[in-house]
Structures are given as structure tokens and as C-alpha cells.
Amino acid sequence: MFQLPRPGRGVKALMAILAVSWILFVLLADAGGGEIAGVLPLVPEQLLRGFLWQPLTAMLLQPPSSIGAIAVQLFILWFAVSPMEDRLGTRKLLQSFFFAGLAGNVLTAAVTLAGSALLDSPPHLLDDGALYIGSGSAVLGVWVAGLGTARGQILRTGFLGEIKAEHLAAGLVGLGVLLSFGGGGTHPLGELSAGAFGWWWGTRGRVRAATRPSSPRPAPRFEVLEGGNENPGRAGRGWRARAGADEQWH
Predict the structure, then answer these.
(1) Is 76:139 a contact under the CB 8 Å cutoff?
(2) Structure pTM?
(3) Are 157 and 230 in the same domain?
(4) Residue 225 and residue 202 in one domain
């Protein structure tokens, strides 16, 4: 029988943050707060003037008309990311979301500024008047981070059948990059860098665990005891090997 995923505290927090942020941004735009709303998305040129909060606020926003985009991201968090919270842990899940989103925004802004400084006709990397808004990169990053905890394993999916975690993660990043060319508040550089960061973040704990040296077992300590093996009460001498909490009679 099909059962809906039960989101943990981390997924619930992310869903609430994205939903409330979008509602507040819509209300702010409708209330005539254009000046405030104009400094929340990412404008690379404004970063050079001290608007350093924009990489963070931009990844929590969606255009007021993009109710479909925010609905898709909430759906992904609920159905795709919820089963991964137990593997990642709540703290690491939240960290992967915010760090992946920041990585995507910062890299996109850095490439945009570098292109403007080095080229007479820089490539048009950002749409909508150089605004980069959207949480798509952050959602992709936390999704891929969850897959990273299953590196090297075969996953059973509904319509794709059995697939390796690496292949599924690469496919999701590629799909995100492809869809970002259609706009919707995401960018290819942001999707690519967020996906790469998410994979590294999801696998780093396993790599540390695999390379951590195992503690050596204590050397056996021998004690000479009165009595023999089968009958400790009879005359004779025996010995007992003790290693940690384990004892063995001889």
C-alpha cells in the first residue's frame, strides 16, 4: 500500500521557510515595497557596493508570479528529500540546503562580474535585468547531498528501476541545468555548482568514516590461575587470557 513520506523536522523547516518567504515577497511587491524588494534578489553589481546579503536572500525568493516553481520545490522536498533526512541528519540537511544555494549564487555572481570586467561584450548570464532569484539550486543541492550518502549503492526507483546513486545524481544535475535554460529563476551555473557541492557535502562524512583509523584491540593479558581447564577446583595450574571485556579459559 502506498504511503506518503513523513517529513522530518529539517524538511518541515525548509518547506515552511520557502513558503513563508514567497508569500512575504508577494505581499511586499503588492504593497508597493519595490525599493526593498529590489535589493533582495541578487544583482552582482550591487555586491560590490556592499549588498552582501543578496546571495542568501536571493535563494529564498521566487518571482511573485512563479507559484508553480515554488509548488514544485515544496513537492520535491516532501517526496524526494524526506526519505533522505534520516541518512543525512537534520543539521547536515539544513547545512547542505543553505551552503549549496550560496555556492550557486556566489559562483554565478563571480562569473558575471569577471565577464563584465574582462570582456567588452560579456555573456548574458543573468536574466530579468541581472536578477538571479530562486531556491531551485538549493533544493537541488540538498537532494543530491542525500543521494551522496548512498554513494556506490544501487537505488530502487519507481519509474527508473534500479540505478546507481552516482548516475541518478548526475542525471538530476543535468536535468536541472537543462531546465534552467528556460528561465524560472534558476541558472545553469547555479544548478551545476549547487549539485557538485551537494554531492561533496553528502559524501564527505562517509569518506571521513572510511579513512578514520580503527582503534587497535587491546593485547591479551595472561593470568596464572589455580586449577585446570575442565575443573577449576582440581589440583593443577591453568591460565586465562583476558582481552578487553572478553575472557577465555584454557
Answers:
(1) yes
(2) 0.73
(3) no
(4) no
